[in-house]
Amino acid sequence: xxxxxxxxxxxxxxxxxxxxxxxxxxxxxxxxxxxxxxxxxxxxxxxxxxxxxxxxxxxxxxxxxxxxxxxxxxxxxxxxxxxxxxxxxxxxxxxxxxxxxxxxxxxxxxxxxxxxxxxxxxxxxxxxxxxxxxxxxxxxxxxxxxxxxxxxxxxxxxxxxxxxxxxxxxxxxxxxxxxxxxxxxxxxxxxxxxxxxxxxxxxxxxxxxxxxxxxxxxxxxxxxxxxxxxxxxxxxxxxxxxxxxxxxxxxxxxxxxxxxxxxxxxxxxxxxxxxxxxxxxxxxxxxxxxxxxxxxxxxxxxxxxxxxxxxxxxxxxxxxxxxxxxxxxxxxxxxxxxxxxxxxxxxxxxxxxxxxxxxxxxxxxxxxxxxxxxxxxxxxxxxxxxxxxxxxxxxxxxxxxxxxxxxxxx
Amino acid sequence: xxxxxxxxxxxxxxxxxxxxxxxxxxxxxxxxxxxxxxxxxxxxxxxxxxxxxxxxxxxxxxxxxxxxxxxxxxxxxxxxxxxxxxxxxxxxxxxxxxxxxxxxxxxxxxxxxxxxxxxxxxxxxxxxxxxxxxxxxxxxxxxxxxxxxxxxxxxxxxxxxxxxxxxxxxxxxxxxxxxxxxxxxxxxxxxxxxxxxxxxxxxxxxxxxxxxxxxxxxxxxxxxxxxxxxxxxxxxxxxxxxxxxxxxxxxxxxxxxxxxxxxxxxxxxxxxxxxxxxxxxxxxxxxxxxxxxxxxxxxxxxxxxxxxxxxxxxxxxxxxxxxxxxxxxxxxxxxxxxxxxxxxxxxxx
Lengths: 410, 349
Known about the structure:
The complex is a heterodimer. By secondary structure, chain A is mainly alpha-helical. Chain A has helices at about 10-15, 15-20, 25-45, 50-75, 85-100, 115-140, 145-165, 165-170, 210-230, 235-245, 245-250, 255-280, 290-305, 310-340, 355-380, 385-410; strands at about 180, 185, 195-200, 200-205. Chain A has a domain at about 40-290. In chain A, the strands form 2 sheets. Chain A has a two-stranded antiparallel ribbon. A two-stranded antiparallel sheet of chain A has the order 2-3. Chain B is mainly alpha-helical. Chain B has a single domain (about 15-335), classed as ABC transporter involved in vitamin B12 uptake, BtuC (Orthogonal Bundle), CATH 1.10.3470. Helix content of chain B is about 75%, strand content about 5%. Chain B has 13 helices and 6 strands. In chain B, helix 4 (about 85-100) crosses helix 10. The longest helix of chain B is centred in the N-terminal third of the chain and has 32 residues, at about 45-75. Chain B is globular and about 55 Å long. The relative contact order of chain B is 0.17. Chains A and B meet through helix 6, helix 7, helix 12, helix 13 and helix 15 of A and helix 1, helix 6, helix 11 and helix 13 of B.
């Protein structure tokens, strides 16, 4: 290629930004990155220094990790997993048990305080091995039977944590979980300090911004990792199995090992997320890992666009904020809206009418269901379906149409 | 690793006298359970038969709900998450309709009988209509969409139905009119076991409904169309079967059974809340899988067995372990017998 032909004038042209933006997925990554970077400063500025939205975003990050992990199992390998929260629970409890006073009261009478950075990887390994242990006897089950086994597993795990109250505290949950400690960190007005300074050593102690940075790094790492996985030999094997297991086996793919790896690797992300979850809330209870969590993560990835990593991330963030920010803030917002329009009388309790805020609060579950159904009906492939999948589906439809035409002629 | 897995499979399918090793494992598990229970029956027959009585009554209700799951799954391969909520909704509607009648729960008065005879079919028809609407709105447009899309709308519909009940009656537990006679004349001790009219009613009602369903599926033209559609939708269509109508009919009949189940649940337990269907639905679905999903007698048997497992586990192991036992058995059954108890070994498509 002639080097002189490469335009040198503008920076825009040199980075080939225009072509990149035209590629939807790259553009989506770009938007997510920019929003993630601007978000803390913007909210601090607009919310008068309140860090509520930032801590919410940190928790949303947990779900992004979960969605990325479940996407490996469901989106890449095509194995329906309805009990993903079990691995999340295993990761969270691994950290909670070995980084709190909890085990002091247990039969071994000794509290462990391992550092977060180590336990994150231990949680990952334990969740991955749980995935492998569950997968080993069950992966030869086809399709939905596998889904049901995972569903059962997802019901069993939180129940076990609930019942083994000698060890896990059961319904009382595990509290007082250690905070991560870094050798050094920058503090400033956003964390309540007077001026910007370096603290060393730095204890996270529920600092939302520190957690935000941590989850940002974790998610970024997970994205790079999972993108490489998708393009690797293993990733292609997963997709081959998803499309046609028999054909994949005939091509020399060891389907059992490949599926087992999908299960283990998918689970490992949630082990990771579990440790972060335990640390950022400082409290781990069996009720945090019920069937509804598995379902929520599944909804996130299907709605975002299964198999497409930026789509899945977008779906996770969108659903998290709908569930934890939009819907809970609806009743007070409606109330103040009614006041501005002079309909303040609706806000009062009156006979059977429970008041506007209360009525709206009762509506939230219904609204969430409506959002799910409408979104799925409008975009059955999800918001940002994987490009490859989209092409395949179009191709399949075209082939079917051709076949129909041939039949009509015959 | 890989070789060990295939070795495991080879081991599993090793045949001894025409029976695979996996089947032997399954038989051993069943035998162990039976022996353990038989020991209990000998040691303390009264507790045993009392538990059996509770288990059969529970199981009859689970069976009615499980049938709807299995029929829908058999015909469109969808886990209809909204089904459990349809079940709860029927009890909600039933309790509202029964409110119009003067109620006297202590004896089998004429008013009670008339009220039940009117309300039962009305609730069943309403719920059937709602379920057909749900299929029409949320599942039919997605019939050729990616497989997980209707699953998500099913979850959405479940939230919508639950949300509607929440909006209607709030989060509090609602009481269902206690219409079935439960006075001193309607309960008895047989060999030290306490039987009530309610137990008998639940079981008889369930048996009648399941038998009617079996006759319908096996004898009627529509039932034949359902079986054909479940087996091969395209071939059924080529034979002139109206697929949409058949699927609607499946949803309608599944809902009739769930509605009857919900009414019976209300009459039997007399209290419920909007969230009941989520858990009950999950367990009923487990029952359907247990019996072999898509298999109609399997769902009835599975429901009954899950009810028994629940009652025995509540009594002998402790109720906090029941859910672990149920789902543990589910995993065990699927590992040893991947198509359920009565499921056939079908070749993979």
